[in-house]
Specification:
Length: 87
């Protein structure tokens, strides 16, 4: 399955109801293996093909990290960590 300049590598939902989707944007993208996941608690995370990331904690807070590494937070950020498991 493909479209919009990418192909799907993997996607699914685990037993906790957390969804993930990994895409391959090819060698011309800064981050060719981008992905996103969304959790049953309302939080979600995007790793974008341009090298930026976006994390929303599901409680009104979010953190955007530009390709340069500069981070911008807004709202009730709580934990601004964008790390998490895709499993």
């Amino acid at each position: 399955m493909s479209g919009n300049g990418y192909s799907y590598k993997s996607h699914g939902t685990n037993s906790q109801g957390n969804h993930y989707c990994a895409r391959d944007y090819g060698s011309s993208a800064s981050n060719s293996n981008s992905y996103h996941y969304s959790n049953s608690n309302g939080s979600y995370y995007y790793s974008n093909p341009n090298g930026s990331t976006y994390y929303n904690n599901g409680a009104g807070g979010s953190t955007y990290t530009a390709p340069s590494g500069q981070s911008y937070s807004s709202g009730n950020s709580g934990s601004s960590s964008g790390s998490g498991s895709q499993k």
